[in-house]
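agent> Task received from the user: take the single chain below, predict its 3D structure, and emit structure tokens. No templates, no multimer pairing.
agent> Plan: (1) validate residues, (2) run structure prediction, (3) serialize to tokens, (4) report one or two observations.
agent> Step 1 OK, no nonstandard residues flagged.
tool_call: predict_structure(input=
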Amino acid sequence: MNSKYAGKAYTETTVHKYHRNLIGIEHPTRYGAPHTNTVVFIGGLGDGITTVPYVKPLADALDKAGWGVVELLTTSSFGGWGTGSLERDAEEVEKAVEYLTTKLEAGGLPNKQKVVLLGHSTGCQDIMYYLTRGKERAKIDGAILQAGVSDRDATVLNIGEKKWKETVAAAQKLVDEGKGDTVLSGEFAEIMHNTPISASRFVALNAPRGDDDFFSIDLPDSDLEKSFGQIKVPLLFLMSGSDAFVDPKQDKQKIVDRYESFVKGGNWSELSGVIDGASHNVGRDSKEGAVDAVVEKIESFVKSI
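)
tool_result: status=success, residues=305
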């Protein structure tokens, strides 16, 4: 991964135990006092601390701007998502926000004054759920969605519509029978990144209007009004131009423009858009300059908060 922001390895990080056995690691400050503002990074399915490559260059760049980056470990991190839910994720993210904004002083560090949530992949669904579903949660100052894509659309793209319908129907039958906690292996696990997955989470990720279904191409305007239309904080949306989980026949800029049309109150950031040549996680297979583009957009966005 070539980036002008690439810096030293993970060193001198601060470990925050924000809830029970869950931690977040805060990247170090190299320019003086501890960060009083922070970006909280939430990874996607299979992700955990250190797994998304652009986060370290982002932390180095934001440090110079006076912002920190905290990477969260949640119960759903790595393989834990297979038996999880967005509700559980949102509850844990809220615990982290509360800890960072109200409890750091007890340990001798300044509480964070501003918090922006940054989601990658299913981390975007976590943020959408946090902001638009259920109760009103701990206040945040902004949200960044990077590679917010549809698991349902990706599954159809991967295995075909016939097999998708068959597997969703089988999982839904277990849910309807009160067996949603049944852990599915075999072809179900193979479909879902070789991860054992409960019937209820398989349905949430793959059924139309399942709990995770925020970004499917065929969602009607009424659904987007209930999601994007309810966002009340500044929002930056970054779609990867070479995302393998999006049908290449789809016009990605058109998708982004559609989301923009629902966000009210001037909360949509004009920095939003498609990152040319970026892979799903803006990794090594991305076009040169993609990491820099993501970092620069996020840095400009948080500076405006």
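agent> Step 4: summary for the user.
The CA atoms of residues 25 and 148 lie 23 Å apart.
agent> Done.
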